[in-house]
Structures are given as C-alpha cells and as structure tokens.
Specification:
The protein is α/β, with parallel strands linked by helices. The chain has a single domain, classed as Response regulator (Rossmann fold, 3-Layer(aba) Sandwich). It contains five helices and five strands, in the order βαβαβαβαβα. It has helices at 15-27, 38-47, 66-74, 93-101, 115-130, and strands at 7-11, 31-35, 54-58, 84-88, 106-109. Strands 2-1-3-4-5 form a five-stranded parallel sheet, with helices on both faces. Helix 2 (38-47) packs parallel to helix 3. The longest helix has 16 residues, at 115-130. The protein is globular, with a radius of gyration of 14 Å.
C-alpha cells in the first residue's frame, strides 16, 4: 500500500452500504467523505477547498441519478479532473457508454466485485491520475 493518504468521496444513499464502504476504505488507509445523496455531494464539492482524489458513485440515488451528478460535476472547471467510478446494480449498454463518454473512468456492477476489489480499482485510478506524463 502506498504511504500517500488518499481521500475518496463515496456517494451512496443506502446507509448500511455507505457505512460498510466507509469502514473498508478507512481500513485500507483511505480517508472518506461520505455523502448520502447527489445534492449533498454537489454542496460539498462546491463549498470545500479540499477536493477528493476520486468519487465512488452509486448510480441509483434517491435525489438524482448518477448521470445527473456526473453532468453537474462536469459543468465545474475545478471538479472536472476528479476521477469518477460508478458502481451500480445494473448496466444498460447505453447508460455505460453515455457515462464513459462524459469521462467516468469505470462503470462496475456491484454483483461482480467485492468491496476490496473496487477499492483496489479506485486506488489504481488515483495512482494513474497522479503520474506525470512527459
């Protein structure tokens, strides 16, 4: 594990799942910003100076869809470079293509991955973002 401390924003409206993800991330040495919905995530991103290194986004939220949240994030120049990983219970080809075209780094089905696997994917995406290409 890298010594660098990462911060991941988790946007998940199922309270028990949010707690489980938060616990696993912290045990992996990653700081967590927990958001129970899209509006809370947008408010945080627009208000606070310290931005997360990545966003772990559930597609189905009570207050908006993952697509709506990604569109809001992509409107803001200071947020546009934050890597987003969408984790969902379903994946239509059109939905996945649309999100990837907007710059989402990965679209993962919850049923196909363990939390530890998703954490490793997120960590690799953050690591790749930090590399300087010459």
């Amino acid at each position: 594990m890298d010594n660098q401390k990462y911060t991941v924003m988790v946007v998940e409206d199922e309270a028990l799942l949010l707690q489980a993800i938060e616990k696993k991330l912290r045990l992996s040495g990653i700081s967590v910003i927990s958001c129970a919905g899209g509006n809370q995530a947008i408010e945080y991103l627009r208000t606070f100076q310290k931005l997360p290194d990545a966003i772990w986004l559930d597609y189905y939220l009570r207050d908006m869809s993952g697509l709506d949240l990604v569109n809001e994030i992509k409107k803001d120049e200071k947020l546009i470079k934050i890597p987003i990983v969408v984790i969902s219970n379903s994946a239509s080809e059109n939905k996945v293509k649309t999100l990837l075209a907007l710059g989402v780094k990965k679209y993962l089905l919850k049923s196909e991955y363990r939390l530890d696997d998703i954490i490793e994917i997120v960590r690799k995406i953050i690591d790749e973002k930090g590399k300087v290409v010459s």
